[in-house]
């Protein structure tokens, strides 16, 4: 065995951390998108977006890379970066350094939807819980993107509802992985739609 080779059985699975960071940050923002909390609540979302949604997912992505998990590395690093993107956008707008173009924001969210679409295509081969996380995240990004582009409150609220469903599946997956690491096969993750 090479000196720099890792014994993967001795490493903790970083995915539950990244899924919890993603899920709980998404839950909070979805309260705003769904119209349950006012837009001023974004000031509470931002610190969470940087510290948990952003930083914890980037950290998770680094550990997934170390474990050789290309899917996990790409997903967690990308969505961690998304939270930094969103947080900086709101922060710079608040400081009046930039003016947010709703059309550009809409296109950016739709592009994140396209990225999520091809991640979802691969999540179909993992387990049902992750499959549902990426499916509803794709729907959320598309609804939010078109809602921003057309300044359509109804679409934005639908995106918020899809965000709640996304967050539920992400948090459930995190909880199930942790539970199953303590007592094997405590909670089901569901079978993949397609075999690897």
Automatic annotation (TrEMBL):
The keyword Coiled coil does not apply. It comes from the Archaea. The chain crosses the membrane at residues 20-50, 71-94, 100-121, 128-150, 156-178. One of its GO terms (molecular function) is acetate:proton symporter activity. It is found in: Membrane. Pfam families: Gpr1_Fun34_YaaH. Keywords: Membrane, Transmembrane, Transmembrane helix. It is a multi-pass membrane protein. GO terms for cellular component: plasma membrane. The keyword Transmembrane helix applies. Its main location: membrane. GO terms for biological process: succinate transmembrane transport. Belongs to the acetate uptake transporter (AceTr) (TC 2.A.96) family. This is Transcriptional regulator.
């Amino acid at each position: 065995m090479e000196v720099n080779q890792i014994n993967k059985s001795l490493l903790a699975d970083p995915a539950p951390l990244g899924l919890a960071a993603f899920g709980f940050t998404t839950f909070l923002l979805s309260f705003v998108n769904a119209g349950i909390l006012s837009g001023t609540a974004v000031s509470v979302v931002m610190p969470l977006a940087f510290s948990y949604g952003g930083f914890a997912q980037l950290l998770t992505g680094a550990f997934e890379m170390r474990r050789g998990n290309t899917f996990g590395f790409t997903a967690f690093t990308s969505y961690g970066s998304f939270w930094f993107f969103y947080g900086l956008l709101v922060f710079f707008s608040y400081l009046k350094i930039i003016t947010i173009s709703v059309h550009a924001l809409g296109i950016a969210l739709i592009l994140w939807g396209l990225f999520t679409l091809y991640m979802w295509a691969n999540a179909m081969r993992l387990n049902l819980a992750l499959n549902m996380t990426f499916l509803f995240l794709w729907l959320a990004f598309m609804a939010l993107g078109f809602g921003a582009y057309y300044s359509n409150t109804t679409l934005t609220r639908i995106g918020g509802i899809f965000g709640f469903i996304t967050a539920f599946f992400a948090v459930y997956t995190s909880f199930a992985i942790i539970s199953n690491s303590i007592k094997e096969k405590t909670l089901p993750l569901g079978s993949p739609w397609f075999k690897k």
